[in-house]
Amino acid sequence: MGKIKLLDNLTIQKIAAGEVIERPASIVKELIENSLDANSSNIVVEINNGGKSYIRVTDDGDGITDDDLDLAFERHSTSKLSTIDDIYNIISLGFRGEALASISNVSKVQVMTKTKDSLGGIHAVIEEGKVVSKDTVGCPKGTTMIVKDLFYNLPVRKKFLKSDLVEFNHVSDIVYKLALGNYNTSFKLIKDNKVILKTSNNNSLITNIYTILGKDIAKNLISISFEKDDFKLNGYISNNNLYRSNRSHQYLYINNRYINNNIITDAIERQYKSIIPINRFPVFTLFIEMNPGNLDVNIHPTKQEVKFVNQEEVINIISSTIRDSLNPSLVIPRVTFDN
Ligand code: ADP
Ligand code: MG
């Protein structure tokens, strides 16, 4: 007898779930991204105990049909990709069809959802990745996902979760990132029944920065923009009076997706070398729009990293646009507020 065995399905699913779901904030990220992909205008995130015991995300988006609901929690089930070619042209935030499967394998999930055309809503209970009950309910158009008791079936993982406060800080960090980048959608973040953040839809980016990051940051920003062919760079960067002791106020979005990219961050920071103190970091909120075909977002399950086909060109554009905008001999279009 050999010693290699095939793992059973439940074990396989729990291992796979661990790649995407590390902590409550990972769930919040996936649920909000699904709400955004479903064309929502209003998203409410409610969190108890740092998200360890309770997470509820309510949206007013497209909703899920009865038939789709049975599939939505299966692994590799997605409405966002249909052929392999689509993976080179991704415009939605999700596409791996893994999040709901993973979440429902490591916590207790309930969903309420209604599409525009259906008469009533559906309430479903999902256990170990399977829809175990479904009934009709009255509810408005949109989807509510309730996620309880994270890692109830993975005691070791549960032990690795930090205090409620630390977990909540991770949650608020991701909500702030998504709220800042999606200024056409209103966000509300509620922590143990207390409203922590509220943005409105139909905002401009700068009003959103004002609401989320505060007036002191907003008034020290310079607006930048560059456009060539199908490449656009827009947003706000700090002037020489605004810097932080860490990188927590650096926000970069590519095709509306929040992205971590050290090469871009380095290129931006280099432009500030001679104008802000050493070991201090500029603040920025930048949006890049580019042909999704020149971008690979499929390199990590959480999709926060990208690879560019023409990285050098992208870096050159960013560096020179920022250099020109910071140049004191140019007229700097500073942001002003009345009060
Ligand atoms: P992905 O987002 O990669 O497609 P998910 O597991 O996150 O995979 O979701 C599976 C499917 O469930 C989505 O493709 C979508 O059709 C549906 N879905 C999930 N959340 C929502 C939501 N809030 N509103 C509408 N549809 C949703
Ligand atoms: Mg998703």
Automatic annotation (TrEMBL):
The chain holds residues 1 to 339 of 617 of the full protein. It comes from the Bacteria. It comes from Tissierella simiarum. Transmembrane segments: none annotated. This protein is involved in the repair of mismatches in DNA. It is required for dam-dependent methyl-directed DNA mismatch repair. May act as a 'molecular matchmaker', a protein that promotes the formation of a stable complex between two or more DNA-binding proteins in an ATP-dependent manner without itself being part of a final effector complex. GO terms for molecular function: endonuclease activity. This is DNA mismatch repair protein MutL. Keywords: DNA damage, DNA repair, Endonuclease, Hydrolase, Nuclease. Residues 209-327 form the DNA mismatch repair protein S5 domain. Belongs to the DNA mismatch repair MutL/HexB family. The keyword DNA repair applies. The keyword Magnesium does not apply. The gene is mutL.
